[in-house]
From TrEMBL:
It is found in: Cell outer membrane. Keywords: Cell outer membrane, Membrane, Signal. Transmembrane segments: none annotated. This is Tetratricopeptide repeat-containing protein. Residues 1-32 form the signal peptide. Its main location: membrane. The keyword Hydrolase does not apply. One of its GO terms (cellular component) is cell outer membrane. Gene3D superfamilies: TonB-dependent receptor, beta-barrel domain. InterPro entries: Beta-barrel_TonB_sf.
Length: 493
């Protein structure tokens, strides 16, 4: 840590003289917030008599003129008067970085950021902290500080620079993280039916659904996390090894009860509670991923993954899968994407084995016209599940579209999406009844996302998503609707 001389200190130059002497150097933007000198008269001012504002201006100009010892001496005076003075900590950090004392610079820059009182002070302290992190080759910390510069950027240009810095640092970092946490209150957390009776199109028989087959309200919590480490790379490609975790937990409203199944004619058993854990699930996986770019407009990514899934607290199945994704930049800046995937599932304690195949195509772009500018996207997908368990066999077709307008509603940004899908289970039966064409579900869905880009932490902003789903089926057990609201966080860029 820098230390001020013990001798009595006197400022033998006027503040105005210091400002003129530093005229050849650039004044750091954060420090430019210090008030200008009140007078240009030549006079000798004792440090004891100088105001904090006068010392701040002198320290700023001394640092800009690379008069490091003088700048540090004045910074110590500022911190003696107020240990939470952000300018004093900033000068210590800048001066320490100049002499490659990154340990002191790191702590001083952090203190400058957390004692800052204005957005510009936060911005400049974050920039400095990021420079220190880069000097230490701490790219993860540098990404955090780049996000802070985005959060507190004083203008669009500074924000664009911060975004560019973050993406460059993320690409250079050997370790990558992804973390998503969501809380979703819903009127149907278990995918339950709307009606107590179970009617199958084309048959006169009517079934009676159990309590746990009915729609139950509650809250769903989800955690989706991934970490990967780069193990090889060239200018055109990189290979990563990583781990992923997905968890889903349900909390029912109240304590819903159900009567267990029993043989007609026997006494009805006592009701039991429908447990939250019966609707929980967890997946843990590891993957190897290789990405390669072909010029500036085309890229491919291949991924091999294996893992295990648990449902209701019990091991459900192991899986192994492969996926290939591609992206092509088209004329005009539109982006075409595609993905092919196959996954094998081996169920535990059961002879059941599944194979799922999927194909998806997407097109996205930006509308720049004066009328309703924004980002748009459309997509189609198809999937098929082959299984030796006849009830599970299905195929699904889905189409969706979305739009994120550039215009905001006050401080709020919004995005809209909607779609439709049809799923067919050709071999599905209900106690021997097989509807013509199998079970057929038609699903319509819509979603509105709302967030405030300028409100948040480190360029992460709270987000609310309103979702509506309506499913019509030729087996009424699967006719259902759901209204939900998801609360989470999203990146503001």
């Amino acid at each position: 840590m820098w230390r001020a001389p013990d001798r009595a200190l006197r400022l033998g130059l006027t503040v105005a003289t210091l400002c003129l002497a530093a005229g050849g150097g650039a004044t750091p933007p954060a420090l430019a917030e210090a008030p200008p000198p009140q007078s240009s008269r030549s006079e000798t001012i004792s440090l004891a008599d100088a105001s904090t504002e006068q010392i701040a201006v002198a320290a700023t100009q001394a640092l800009a003129a690379q008069q490091t010892d003088l700048a540090v001496m004045l910074a110590e005076v500022l911190l003696q008067r107020d240990p939470k003075n952000p300018l004093g900590h900033y000068i210590f950090a800048r001066a320490s970085l100049l002499v490659r004392d990154t340990a002191t610079a790191r702590e001083a820059a952090r203190r400058s950021f957390f004692t800052a009182q204005t957005p510009v002070q936060h911005y400049e302290a974050a920039r400095l902290a990021g420079q220190v992190a880069v000097a230490d080759q701490r790219l993860g910390a540098a990404q955090f500080w780049a996000r802070q510069t985005i959060q507190f950027a004083p203008d669009p240009r500074a924000r664009a620079v911060g975004i560019s810095d973050f993406r460059r640092l993320r690409a250079a970092s050997p370790t990558a993280f992804r973390f998503k946490l969501g809380i979703r209150p819903s009127n149907n957390v278990n995918g339950g039916a709307e009606e107590r009776t179970n009617v199958i199109d084309g048959f006169d028989a009517v079934g009676w659904l159990s309590d746990d087959a009915m729609a139950l309200p509650g809250v769903v919590g989800t955690l989706d996390a991934e970490v990967s480490r780069r193990i090889a790379h060239t200018p055109e490609s990189e290979t990563r090894l990583g781990f992923s975790l997905y968890a889903r937990a349900v909390d029912f409203e109240g304590r819903p009860m159900m009567v267990p199944a029993y043989t007609p004619g026997d006494p009805a058993p006592d009701p039991v509670e429908i447990r939250n854990s019966d609707y929980s699930s967890t997946s843990l996986g590891t993957h190897l991923e290789h990405s390669r770019s072909f010029g500036t407009t085309f890229g491919l990514q291949a991924r091999l993954e294996t893992g295990r899934n648990w449902q209701a607290g019990q091991q459900a199945y192991d899986w192994i899968g492969a996926e290939v994704q591609g992206t092509k930049i088209l004329t005009g800046g539109n982006r075409l994407s595609f993905a092919l995937a196959q996954e094998e599932r081996n169920w535990q304690g059961s002879p059941r084995n599944d194979t799922r195949r999927a194909l998806s195509l997407g097109l996205s772009g930006r509308r720049t016209a004066d009328h309703l500018p924004g980002d748009w996207r459309i997509g189609v997908s198809a999937s098929q599940l082959e299984s030796n368990f006849t009830q599970a066999r299905d195929w699904t077709l889905t189409g969706s579209a979305g739009f994120t307008p550039k215009a905001q509603l006050g401080p709020l940004a919004m995005t809209f999406s909607a779609g439709f899908s049809t799923s067919v289970y050709p071999d599905y039966t209900v106690i021997g009844f097989h509807p013509d064409g199998g079970r057929q579900d038609e699903t319509a869905f819509a979603e509105i996302g709302i967030w405030a880009p300028k409100v948040g932490v480190a360029a992460f902003t709270p987000e609310m998503r309103l979702q509506a789903v309506q499913v019509e089926s030729n087996i009424s057990r699967f006719t259902r609707s759901e209204l939900s609201m998801t609360l989470g966080w999203r990146s503001s860029f």
